Amino acid sequence: MDQENIWDEIYSHLKWNKETKSLPKLLKNKTVLELGLGNGKTLISILKQKPSKFFAIDFSSKAIKKSKDIFKDKLEILKADARKLPFPDESFDIVVAYYVLNNSVKKDRIKIVREILRVLKKDGFCLFEDFSINDFRNVGKGSNVVNGNKLRCHFFEIKELKELLGSFSKINLKKKISYPIRNKNNLKREIINIVARK
């Protein structure tokens, strides 16, 4: 089963009841693109900031259908591949890439970042968040993991992200560490949050 079909299966059952709280307050009156709208967690936060124009893409038909059912005509949602974005150069002030690059192999991550740079306006921003190699979900597994459902997941090292995003003029990187409730083994969640300027 390919990654698109795996995601379609996941989104057939996934509930939409959470919201991404870590999105920087930069989107008001901006033209925004979200890569991989997924289960809508980040989409909710984006819309609350009132961008002037908003587009979202995903390659999962099920994710797109759920989004359209919930959000109706509030946004433009397209079925598209982040490796070849269907937008002209310099179309967006901000591209949001939260938990998208981790599901791609290295050569595709490079293509996606090139596409982000292409569609960003001069001085535009990429907002990025994803799993750190030190996250408890990855303990002892290495950076590339294939889950039981065959879903690909990559866990990032900071050095690797700096290299991947090296064509941006400025990178503001933060590690976010938390400890889940009901955590008997004191395992830590560790994610990396980046605001990268073109």
Keywords, please?
5 helices; seven-stranded mixed β-sheet; 198 residues
What can you see in these coordinates?
With about 200 residues, the protein is α/β, with parallel strands linked by helices. Helices cover about 25% and strands about 30% of the residues. The chain has five helices and nine strands. Strands 3-2-1-4-5-9-8 form a seven-stranded mixed β-sheet. β2, α3 and β3 form a beta-alpha-beta unit. α1 runs parallel beside α3. The longest helix has 14 residues. The radius of gyration is 16 Å and the shape is globular.
Going across the major beta sheet, what is the strand order? 3-2-1-4-5-9-8
Percent of sequence in beta strands: 25-35%
Counting DSSP E segments of at least 2 residues, the number of strands comes to 9
Mean pLDDT over the residues: 83
Q: Roughly how many Å is the radius of gyration?
A: 16 Å
Cα(first) to Cα(last) distance is: 36 Å
Secondary-structure class: alpha/beta
Written as H for each helix and E for each strand, in order along the chain, the element string is HEHEHEEHEEEHEE
> How many distinct helices?
5
User: pLDDT under 50 segments (min length 5)?
Assistant: none
What global shape is seen?
Answer: globular
Helical percent range?
Answer: 25-40%
Largest beta-sheet characterization: 7 strands, mixed
